């Protein structure tokens, strides 16, 4: 079941104290970002946060589950109304992740056809 836009917007509202949060539609569901870093996904009206070694050790009580078949485990946020946990987990994940690589400029394609001069 695809996530509703209403759920996605509510999740982003709950995360607003973590930083500048945004989302992007991906493969029929949503990826979410905080201050430019990819932190998780929203699938089936459930919020998932990427697991990294630093957060796995610190958030042992947060359940883990794959967001979709074949995916690795993410933290599954069962109580989306627990804003304190959401913000703490999002900030800890953000701080431990490396800065995203700058996006490359799109290459322009040149027409390699031949031209005849008169």
What can you see in these coordinates?
It contains 3 helices and 6 strands, in the order αββββαββα. It is of the alpha+beta class. The protein has a 6-stranded antiparallel beta sheet. It is globular, with a radius of gyration of 19 Å. The model has no long low-confidence stretch (mean pLDDT 90).
Give a brief rundown of this model.
The protein has a six-stranded antiparallel sheet. The protein has helices at 5-14, 53-58, 83-96, and strands at residues 21-26, 29-34, 37-43, 46-49, 64-65, 74-77. The chain contains three helices and six strands, in the order αββββαββα.
> Could you tell me how far the N terminus lies from the C terminus, measured between alpha carbons in angstroms?
63 Å
Q: How many strands appear in the DSSP assignment?
A: 6
The name of the CATH topology is Yope Regulator, Chain: A
**What's the gyration radius in Å?**
19 Å
Count, helices: 3
The CATH architecture can be given as 2-Layer Sandwich
What's the SSE pattern?
A: HEEEEHEEH
Structural class: alpha+beta
């Amino acid at each position: 079941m695809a996530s509703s836009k209403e759920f996605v917007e509510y999740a982003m509202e709950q995360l607003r104290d973590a930083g500048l949060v945004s989302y992007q539609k991906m493969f029929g569901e949503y990826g979410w970002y905080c201050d430019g870093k990819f932190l998780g996904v929203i699938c089936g009206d459930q919020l998932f946060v990427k697991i990294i070694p630093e957060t796995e050790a610190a958030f042992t009580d947060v359940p883990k589950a794959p967001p979709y078949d074949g995916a690795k485990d993410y933290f599954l946020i069962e109580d989306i109304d627990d804003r304190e946990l959401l913000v703490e987990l999002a900030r800890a994940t953000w701080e431990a992740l490396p800065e995203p690589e700058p996006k490359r400029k799109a290459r322009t394609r040149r027409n390699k056809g031949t031209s005849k001069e008169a």
